[in-house]
Structure formats: structure tokens, C-alpha cells
Design brief:
Structural class: alpha+beta
Number of helices: 17
Helix content: 40-55%
Shape: rod-shaped
Order of helices and strands: HHHHHHHEEHEHEEEHHEHEEHEEHHHEEH
Strand order of the largest sheet: 2-1-6-5-4-3
Radius of gyration: 49 Å
């Protein structure tokens, strides 16, 4: 309470000082000129100070200046200030009358009270009336009580100064009105700017609250890689990324690749990639060390101006450590359980073969039972082999120079009978020969998986086409069908282990959801990429890009990732 009272007292004192200063400044020019005239009178105008009329006017002006200083004008009505310029007219009339013989031009001093009146809040008509009356008083004062018809021209001459002052007053009022209008416009614009500023501050508070609420780390950088915006979650991630700054805004000592141990090169870090114009998602990196190490899924997008120039970038980081651990645990479980199944199944198949090869043949009905058991055991063994193939991140391959066109032709021949049963026509368009460095067994498995799927998911028949073409850095293999197709979301998940589309389940099409996962693993083990484009009822296109020299180009891989 005391602090508020003190602040109010300071504000009131400041306002009183401002008003008193304004009043003094309005009266001071007139007082200064009159004082200068009086001081120089003994030299320039001898006898002026001995004139009682001049002395009276001079004294009134000085008294009015003193009143302007000591009177608390803030406690009086605002228009009470106008008593000072009105009394100035009387004082100037006395000063002019007293100095008429030596300084008749002192009547122009009325311009000071005129300016005061026209700058006040008086109505225009009142200000003009007081201006004319006050100016007339100054010029007519010597003629009051001494009317002489012979001096008629002198009576008419007293109107000159009032008319001049009236003209000055009108011009002053016009200028004051324009100035006031500009001031009001500036005040309005200032209010609008203040409202916009408050709204911007409120939006910034809301944005900050939103950014600090989400569990995704967000970072915005300018074109030089300097951080311009970040949230609380990203600050937690930054604490894990300790080490020396190498100048690009990212500390790299504790930023690693997917294997958790290989330091991430500067040109593969999210900020650097985004500032070079890349748009990517789901880049897995590891930050920190020891037990505090965390897996982050990063995504980035460059920020561009109207001309397409890069002005910055936005990077998002999500903590996926638990998800990565769960995937690894699932892979370990699949691998372990597959190994556990593999040995007894091999034993079962071996003993079934011994039974069939025994010198004492079994009755026909028992031979049928053994044959069914053998087929089912082989089916489970193949399923276990598929599980083992998908348990690891990469499949082991043994590349050697191979004619891919010949592999395609062999795969087409092996799938032609199945295609005929489904009413599907196989069409091949390839360059021949098409030599490249691949594992023929694994790539044959890829071709068989893609062709068998295209045939299987074309229940209404149609055409399945296989195209292969070579570019400077890669070989592109396309498998197209006109079957049931998938939605865009289903096409993105189709390479996941055990995933089967709802349409395949409704159509009761056989499958375990492992074929495409194995295909992707084989392609990636060759340094290639695979993706799918599909539409419901229009079919699907699977595209495999294999490197010519054993390493697929970054441009090709990024273009495929963006198309997916």
C-alpha cells in the first residue's frame, strides 16, 4: 500500500510539474522581451523607465510570470490558465502606451497571448473573439477618452493590428487542427500497435505453452544454423548431446548412428541436412552415452522464403528408445524361438523320411497320414526359415556378377503355371543382358516373392508386368499388377513383419505377412531400396532400386524415401 501511495504521489507531482512548466514556457518569451526592452532602455530609450504607464505594464507582466511559477494550476480548472494571456493584453497595452514615443512597435507583442489562446482548448469563435478584442485594446488604449474627428484616420488605423492578429489566429487554429488530427492519428496507430503487440505476446505465450507441453523436441534455426526457437523437451535432449561445438550449431561427440557407436558425420546431422534443402523423416540417431543414451527419431523440413531460398529449418526429435528396445526384444524372441523350433522340426522330418524308407512298407492309409504330417512339418519349417530371415536387421548376401535379365526370365518361367491357374498374363520388358553385382539366390527370392504376390493378389486375372532398366548409378526393377490394390497407409506398412492388409484377410488369401519383409531385408542388404505405390481397385507397383557398383546413390534413395 505504501509503495502504491508513493507511486501515485510521484505521478501527481510529475503531472503538476509538467503543467507548471507548460504555463511558464508560454509566459516566459513575452516576459523576456519586455525585460530586454527595460534593461536596454537607459542606453537606447532614455526616460522610458521613468514612464509610470510603462512601469505598470512591465510590473504586471513580471507578476504574471511569478504567478505562473508559484500557483498550483493543476488544482484549478484547465481554462483558468487563460486568465494569464487575457491579462497580458492589458499589460501589453500599458507597455505600448508608455513607450509610444520611443518604441511604438511594441504592440506586436500581442502575438504571444494570441498564440497562447489559439493553442488552448477554447472554441474557435471564443479564441478569435478574444484575439480581436485584446489586439484592439492594445491599439485603441491611447485613444480611449480622447475622441477627435480630425484623427479619424488614426481610429481606422487601430484596426490594422487586430486584423493582422486575427489572420494569424485563424492560421494558427488551422495548423493546430491539422497537428491535432495528426496527433490523434498517431495515438490511434499507437493504440493499434499496442493491441497487436499484446496479441502477439499472448500468442507467443500460447505457442510457448504448447511447445513445452508436447513430448517432441522442436528446434528452429536460421540459415546459419543458429537456434532461434526451441522447447523444453529439446533442451533435455541437448543436455545429452554434450561435447565441443564444431561450429554448425550441433555438438557431435555424443551423436551416433543407428548402431549406437559410430559418430554421426557432420553432413548427416539433421540440421545440416535440412539447411541443404533435404526433407526427411524417421532418421534414427542415438545421443548421449552409457545408460543415459537415448534413441531419437528425427524429422526436418527447410524453411524457404518467397523466392525459394532457404532461410532456416525446423527439426523435430521424438524419443523412441522404448520402441527400439521393444523391436530388438521382439527380433531376439523371434530368432530364439525359431532356432528352438528348427531343430525338432528337422528331426521330425528326418524320422518321417526313415519311416517312408523302411523295408517294411506301411499300409496305404498310414502312408497318407505320414505324407500329411511331412507336408505340414515342411510348411512349418519354411515358416521358421522365414522368421529367421526377418529376425536380423540385414540378410547375409554373397554378391557376384550376374545377368539380372536371366534371373527375371527364370522367375517368370517358374511362376507361369501359377499365373495361368489365376488367369494372369505375365509380361516382361527388360534390357538383355543386364549385368550387375548381386546375390543370385537372394535376388531370385525377391523376384519370386514379388511375382507370387502380384499373381496372388490379382484374383480377377489381368496382366502382371515386369520391367527392368539401367541408369548411370542403379538398376530399377518394377513389378506392376492390376489387382485389388491397397490404400496409401496400407502401402506404407506392407513391408512390416506379419502385416496383412484388411482386404487380404477378407479375401482369405494365404500368407503369414513375412514375404515382403524378407524382400525388403534382402534389397537393403544389397544397398538398394524398395517402395510401393498402390490404389484400391487399381493395382500396385513395387519398385526395387539396386546399385550398379554395389552402393546405391544417395539421390536415388532420398527420392524413393520422399515418394513413399
Amino acid at each position: 500500500m505504501r509503495r502504491d501511495a508513493a507511486a501515485e504521489w510521484i505521478r501527481a507531482a510529475t503531472e503538476r510539474l509538467t503543467i507548471s512548466r507548460s504555463v511558464v514556457l508560454c509566459q516566459f518569451p513575452l516576459s523576456l522581451i519586455v525585460v530586454v526592452v527595460a534593461v536596454t532602455a537607459p542606453i537606447l530609450r532614455p526616460g522610458l523607465l521613468s514612464n509610470h504607464t510603462f512601469e505598470l505594464g512591465f510590473s504586471i507582466i513580471l507578476v504574471l510570470l511569478g504567478l505562473c511559477v508559484i500557483v498550483p494550476w493543476r488544482e484549478f480548472p484547465q481554462r483558468s490558465l487563460l486568465v494569464v494571456p487575457i491579462l497580458d493584453f492589458f499589460a501589453i497595452a500599458l507597455v505600448r502606451d508608455g513607450a509610444m514615443q520611443t518604441q511604438p512597435g511594441l504592440g506586436v507583442l500581442v502575438v504571444f497571448p494570441v498564440l497562447w489562446l489559439m493553442r488552448s482548448s477554447l472554441p474557435t469563435w471564443a479564441g478569435l473573439a478574444l484575439t480581436f478584442a485584446g489586439s484592439l485594446l492594445v491599439t485603441a488604449w491611447p485613444l480611449v477618452g480622447a475622441f477627435d474627428p480630425a484623427l479619424l484616420h488614426s481610429y481606422l488605423g487601430v484596426l490594422l493590428l487586430p486584423v493582422v492578429m486575427l489572420s494569424i489566429a485563424v492560421g494558427m487554429r488551422v495548423m493546430n487542427s491539422r497537428t491535432l488530427a495528426r496527433e490523434q492519428e498517431l495515438e490511434r496507430k499507437e493504440r493499434d500497435l499496442n493491441e497487436l503487440l499484446r496479441a502477439a505476446i499472448d500468442r507467443e505465450r500460447v505457442l510457448t505453452a504448447i511447445l513445452n507441453t508436447v513430448d517432441v523436441g522442436l528446434t528452429a534455426v536460421d540459415a546459419h544454423g543458429t537456434t532461434t526457437l526451441t522447447n523444453r523437451q529439446q533442451e533435455l535432449f541437448n543436455r545429452l548431446i554434450v561435447g565441443s561445438d564444431d561450429g554448425d550449431g550441433e555438438t557431435g561427440k555424443l551423436m551416433f548412428g543407428p548402431d549406437k557407436v559410430t559418430p554421426l558425420p557432420p553432413n548427416r546431422r539433421p540440421i545440416y541436412r535440412a539447411l541443404t534443402g533435404e526433407t526427411f523423416a524417421d532418421q534414427l540417431i542415438w545421443v548421449g552415452d552409457g545408460e543415459a543414451q537415448r534413441a531419437l527419431s528425427t524429422a526436418a523440413r527447410p524453411i524457404k522464403d518467397a523466392d525459394g531460398g532457404i532461410t532456416g529449418a525446423l527439426i523435430a526429435c521424438s524419443d523412441v528408445t522404448e520402441l527400439v528396445d521393444a523391436v530388438n526384444a521382439k527380433d531376439a524372441f523371434i530368432s530364439n524361438i525359431s532356432h528352438e523350433f528348427h531343430a525338432p522340426l528337422t528331426s521330425v522330418l528326418g524320422y518321417l523320411e526313415l519311416v517312408l524308407e523302411d523295408e517294411h512298407p506301411l499300409p496305404p492309409h498310414l502312408l497318407g497320414y505320414v505324407d500329411v504330417a511331412g507336408r505340414n512339418a515342411e510348411r512349418v519349417l519354411h515358416l521358421v526359415a522365414d522368421l529367421l530371415s526377418t529376425a536380423g536387421d540385414r540378410v547375409r548376401v554373397h554378391p557376384r556378377p550376374v545377368d539380372l535379365a536371366a534371373l527375371i526370365e527364370m522367375s517368370v518361367r517358374s511362376n507361369r503355371l501359377r499365373a495361368q491357374k489365376n488367369g494372369v498374363k505375365l509380361k516382361t520388358t527388360t534390357q538383355s543382358p543386364l549385368w550387375t553385382l548381386i546375390d543370385p539366390l537372394r535376388i531370385s527370392q525377391v523376384l519370386d516373392n514379388l511375382l507370387s504376390n502380384a499373381i496372388k493378389y490379382s484374383p480377377g486375372g489381368g496382366v502382371v508386368s515386369i520391367q527392368a532398366e539401367e541408369t548411370e548409378s542403379a538398376i530399377n526393377l518394377h513389378v506392376d499388377d492390376r489387382g485389388m490394390g491397397m490404400t496409401e497407409q496400407e502401402a506404407q506398412q506392407v513391408f512390416s513383419r506379419f502385416y496383412r492388409t484388411p482386404g487380404a484377410r477378407r479375401a482369405d488369401i494365404d500368407g503369414a505377412g513375412l514375404g515382403l519383409a524378407i524382400t525388403k531385408s534382402i534389397v537393403e542388404s544389397h544397398g538398394g531400396v524398395i517402395h510401393c505405390v498402390s490404389a484400391p481397385g487399381k493395382g500396385s507397383r513395387f519398385t526395387v532400386t539396386l546399385p550398379v557398383n554395389g552402393e546405391v546413390s544417395r539421390t536415388a534413395q532420398d527420392s524413393l524415401e520422399e515418394s513413399v
